[in-house]
């Protein structure tokens, strides 16, 4: 009983609480073994782990096909990173460091030093080169934006683009028809005005019409008075 009670006391001791608190947080990367997926707390613990039998077996597996193991870690790292980017930020443009800092909060994540990329910049350039993300470099660093290539999303985008094009075609067709109608109306009015203006100027009645109009103008005038003879 005393031993059991002592165990409970040790569990709630400040040292035990501090150790559990440290285990919850992120540890130093250099004391993490990716092959065994084991995080050591300090250099001594990491040294003891590298001398263990289980670690030796994992290193033997790595020695047989190092490229295949690295490719597997790289694929897992990329998949986890892209899953976080697509679900958390979707197609929003975001700083690469913000996504990475959130990504490494998971203690079980694949560490970058076990992948084919030596830095986050190399990984971001890879995403841009393969067309998986839109990337751009600024004074504040690299920004990334996930490109949604889901077939359903692409189908919706194509349908929306087709609908917009059809609406534009309808507007252009209506504008063209209106322009043609306005031009036809303008031509008809111009032709009518021209025909009305030339009605009295035919090949045989031009001068007669002019004289007739002149006679009408002079019909109501009083007779002109004779000038008196000049004085002698």
Roughly what percent helix? Answer: 55-70%
**Outline type:** rod-shaped
Count of the separate structural domains: 3
CATH class of the largest domain: Mainly Alpha
Distance between the termini: 171 Å
Which fold name is given in CATH as the topology of the largest domain? Arc Repressor Mutant, subunit A
Could you tell me the strand content as a percent range? 5-15%
The CATH architecture assignment of the largest domain turns out to be Orthogonal Bundle
Main β-sheet: number of strands, strand sense, barrel status?
A: 3 strands, antiparallel
Judged by helices, strands and strand pairing, the structural class is mainly alpha
Element pattern in H and E: HHEEHHHEHHEEHH
The average pLDDT value, as a whole number, equals 75
Q: How many H/I helices?
A: 9
Largest sheet strand order: 3-5-4
Low-pLDDT windows of residues: 1-5
Instruction: Write down the Rg.
Output: 47 Å
DSSP strand count = 5
What is the CATH superfamily of the largest domain?
DNA/RNA-binding protein Kin17, conserved domain
Domain C2H2-type: 33-55
GO molecular function, one term: double-stranded DNA binding
Biased composition (Basic and acidic residues): 173-190
Region (Disordered): 161-232
């Amino acid at each position: 009983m005393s031993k059991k009670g002592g165990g409970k006391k040790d569990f709630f001791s400040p040292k035990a609480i501090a150790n559990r608190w440290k285990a919850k947080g992120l540890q130093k990367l250099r004391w993490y073994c990716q092959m065994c997926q084991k995080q050591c707390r300090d250099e001594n613990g990491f040294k003891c782990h590298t001398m263990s039998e289980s670690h030796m077996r994992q290193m033997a597996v790595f020695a047989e096909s190092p490229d295949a193991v690295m490719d597997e870690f790289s694929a897992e790292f990329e998949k986890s990173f892209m899953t976080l980017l697509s679900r958390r930020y979707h197609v929003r443009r975001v700083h690469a460091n913000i996504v990475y800092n959130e990504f490494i909060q998971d203690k079980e994540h694949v560490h970058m030093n076990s992948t084919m990329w030596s830095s986050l910049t190399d990984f971001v350039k890879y995403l841009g080169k393969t067309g998986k993300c839109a990337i751009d470099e600024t004074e504040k660093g690299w920004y990334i934006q996930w490109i949604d290539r889901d077939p359903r999303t692409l189908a919706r985008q194509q349908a929306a683009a087709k609908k917009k094009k059809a609406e534009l075609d309808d507007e252009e067709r209506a504008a063209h028809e209106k322009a043609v109608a306005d031009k036809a109306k303008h031509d008809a009015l111009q032709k009518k005005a021209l025909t009305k203006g030339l009605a009295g100027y035919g090949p045989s009645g031009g001068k007669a019409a002019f004289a007739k109009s002149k006679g009408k103008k002079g019909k109501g005038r009083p007779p002109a008075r004779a000038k008196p003879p000049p004085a002698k």
